[in-house]
Structure formats: C-alpha cells, structure tokens
Amino acid sequence: MQRAIGEMTIECIKGDITDQGDIEVIVNAANQQLKGGGGVDGAIHRAAGPQLVEASRALAPISAGQGVITPAFDLPNDWVVHCAGPVYSDDPDVPPQLAACYRTAIELAEDKAAASIAFPAISAGIYGYPLSEAATIAMETVGEAARSVISLRRARFVLFSDEAHDAFAEALSILT
Ligand code: ADP
C-alpha cells in the first residue's frame, strides 16, 4: 500500500525494520533511558551491535516525544533515530507526544539530508497504544510533514503483524 502525499511517497509494508537495506534512516521505539529493551528496540540493538547502546546512552535520558540520532553501525542503514514514545493513558499530553516522535524523527532525518525513513508502530506494543489510534496519529503527522520536507522522498511504515499493517494501511488510505 503506498500513496504520493506532498513531496513524499508514504508506504505501509509488513516486515522487520532491521531488514530495510534501501532506507537511510530507521526509527527506533526506544525507552527514555536509551538503554535497549524488548520489542523493536531489542531487534534494532541486536542487529546494530554493541556500539549502538554506547552511542545512544551517551545522549540519554530523553522525555516522551523527544528523539536523538546515532549512526546505524552494523545495520544496513546510515542512521537510527531513537524516539521515546509515550506510554498509553488518557493523559491529554499523550497524543501530542506520539505525534512529536514522528515530527522529531523527520526533522532529524532532514538534518542529515536523508531521502528515506522507516518507522515502526511507535508506542503500539509494550507501551499499549491502541493500533488504530496510533496509526491515525502517525499518518496524520507524517502526511502533514510530507508537504514541507526538503530532502525526504520516501516514508515507509514497517509493521510487524497483519493487524498492525491493516491499521496503518487503513489510516493511510483515508488520509486527506
Ligand atoms: P513500544 O514500547 O513503543 O510500544 P514495542 O517495541 O513494544 O514498542 O512495539 C512497537 C511496535 O513494533 C509493535 O507493533 C511491535 O509489534 C513492533 N515490532 C516489534 N519488533 C519489530 C521489528 N523487528 N520490526 C518492526 N516492528 C517491530
């Protein structure tokens, strides 16, 4: 599933974010301590090798909604943006924090003049965000940014399950 929005092609695929060799910047759903963890964070750290934890911990801690960028080391990409997604709750700060993750990742990728970025479903695993709500925020934020990017031309959402893929593809299909 892909659509041309603004300056970018936005696409949704089912897959593993550590396996996106044609993408310059991948985004990690990290924790605030940037010390590695489970889920997509664990997969990224395993694939990048031990230098990633040293590089990212030096930049910690960060708050929910913030992000930092490191080299990708043994991953087949150039950079990794580590975003701390919010833990899902009914706190009104939570949706803007999730949106800030996507915006920050795009800004950091643009600072590196990257043309391509890949995202996982930030906060939609251990952090408990309902998939359809997480997908709507992700697509609306990336879709909005797509209208004013300088270097980025491709944003790929890499979803790990059929359920996640379908939620993100649906959100992409109704983006106006
Ligand atoms: P969070 O703590 O932000 O919720 P998780 O890593 O628990 O982060 O989950 C975020 C999403 O990433 C979930 O939908 C999960 O299924 C997915 N995920 C886990 N491993 C991978 C992977 N290797 N590539 C892409 N997505 C993944």
Automatic annotation (TrEMBL):
Residues 1-176 form the Macro domain. Pfam families: Macro. SMART domains: A1pp. PROSITE patterns: MACRO. It comes from the Bacteria. InterPro entries: Macro_dom, Macro_dom-like. This is Appr-1-p processing protein.
